């Protein structure tokens, strides 16, 4: 199961305390207390694995290492190691204590989540001409801690949407080296799959049905993943009885989930053209035309019709590069 949201308590490391100590050599009675090391930072790092949040599934709390205390003989404490959290690209991270929201947009991108506490100064740092043997040192600063909500919101260039069983995964597999499961029944795809078509990321979203926005079927869990998809390919099967109704069912779910979804560039893909007679196909195309959006008719069994999809993808690529 795709883990696409988690709540977790995170704490950065505490700074080490400064030391009070004096040179034991009677000839030179100076302060020698070293400073504490800095507490470890907590840093999120973007990875391509969309399932990476599952690593946190059973963790309730995570801590970066504390800095070590300063020692005598001018020895400073070691800094606490930084803690790296590997999260999928598209993860939005909210600090529930402050409301601050940060996100990871690129593979390899690093974002500071919580800064470690500063180390306290040892008494060596408090020497002066007036006070040559200070007994003062600082405590290390506490680390920061808060509960966080991490939510994966996929960033894809193209999202495949539609009712179940309309051939979304089949086309994804055809165009990319994704191995999305394909079968002749509803809800074959249980969680989004990503594929790369040259520089475009394509997301195949599980089938949507009426009531998805209220939690029917699987769709609602994934509607949020369409929010940050630039272009939608809206699939309608050529062997449907009522293409307009199919279209409106999915359109209605998008609208009820978030009206912004309707502002995306959208292409209608009439799939499985090989599965129906020429007459039926004509009729479907005539009806789909009434929706007033650009559409193309395909079969994954025909090289020629895949070319029309590839042309659309090429124009999206070109737009992206601009
Ligand atoms: N004849 C024909 N069958 C197709 C075509 N594309 C897909 N199919 C078949 O349609 C069925 C459903 O395909 P999927 O790709 O699993 O459909 P989906 O839209 O991903 O379905 P869900 O994951 O349930 O939402 C499978 O049996 C496919 O082999 C096509 O162009 N022509
Ligand atoms: Mg599928």
Compact overview of the structure:
The protein is an alpha/beta fold and 322 residues long. The protein contains five helices and 14 strands. The longest helix has 19 residues, at 303-321.
Notes on the protein architecture:
- By secondary structure, the chain is an alpha/beta fold.
- It has 2 domains: about 5-150, Spo0b-associated Gtp-binding Protein, Chain: A, CATH 2.70.210; about 155-320, P-loop containing nucleotide triphosphate hydrolases (Rossmann fold), CATH 3.40.50.
- The protein contains 5 helices and 14 strands.
- It has helices spanning about 170-175, 220-225, 245-255, 280-290, 305-320, and strands spanning about 5-10, 40-45, 60-65, 85-90, 90-95, 100-105, 110-115, 145-150, 155-160, 195, 200-205, 230-235, 265-270, 295.
- The protein has a 6-stranded mixed sheet, sandwiched between helices. It has a 5-stranded mixed sheet with strand order 3-1-8-5-6, with no helix packed on it.
- Helix 4 (about 280-290) links the parallel strand 13 and strand 14.
- The chain is rod-shaped, with a radius of gyration of 29 Å.
- It starts with a strand and ends with a helix.
- The model has no long low-confidence stretch (mean pLDDT about 90).
- It binds guanosine-5'-triphosphate and magnesium ion.
């Amino acid at each position: 199961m795709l883990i696409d949201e988690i709540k977790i308590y995170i704490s950065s490391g505490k700074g080490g305390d400064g030391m009070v100590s004096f040179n034991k050599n009677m000839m030179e009675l100076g302060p020698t207390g070293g400073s504490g090391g800095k507490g470890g930072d907590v840093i999120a790092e973007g990875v391509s694995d969309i399932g990476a949040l599952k690593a946190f599934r059973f963790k309730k709390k995570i801590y970066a290492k504390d800095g070590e205390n300063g020692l005598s003989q001018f020895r400073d404490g070691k800094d606490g190691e930084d803690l790296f959290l590997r999260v999928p690209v598209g993860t939005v991270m909210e600090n529930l204590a402050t409301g601050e929201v940060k996100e990871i947009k690129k593979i390899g991108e690093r974002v500071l989540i919580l800064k470690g506490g500063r180390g306290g100064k040892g008494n060596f740092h408090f020497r002066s001409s007036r006070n040559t043997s200070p007994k003062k040192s600082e405590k290390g600063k506490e680390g920061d801690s808060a509960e966080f909500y991490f939510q994966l919101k996929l960033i894809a260039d193209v999202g495949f949407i539609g009712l179940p069983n309309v051939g979304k995964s089949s086309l994804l597999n055809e165009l990319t080296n994704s191995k999305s499961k394909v079968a002749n029944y509803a809800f074959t795809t249980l969680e989004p799959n990503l594929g790369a078509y040259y520089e475009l990321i394509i997301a195949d979203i599980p089938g949507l049905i009426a009531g998805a926005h209220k939690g029917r079927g699987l769709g609602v869990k994934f509607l949020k993943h369409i929010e940050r998809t630039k272009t939608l390919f809206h699939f309608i099967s050529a062997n449907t009885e009522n293409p307009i109704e199919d279209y409106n069912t999915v359109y209605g779910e998008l609208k009820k989930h978030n009206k912004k979804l309707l502002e995306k560039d959208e292409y209608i893909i009439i799939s499985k053209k090989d599965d129906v007679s020429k007459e039926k196909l004509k009729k479907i195309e005539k009806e789909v035309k009434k929706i007033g959006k650009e559409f193309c008719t395909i079969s994954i069994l025909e090289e020629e019709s895949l070319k029309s999809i590839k042309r659309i993808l090429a124009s999206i690529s070109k737009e992206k590069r601009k």
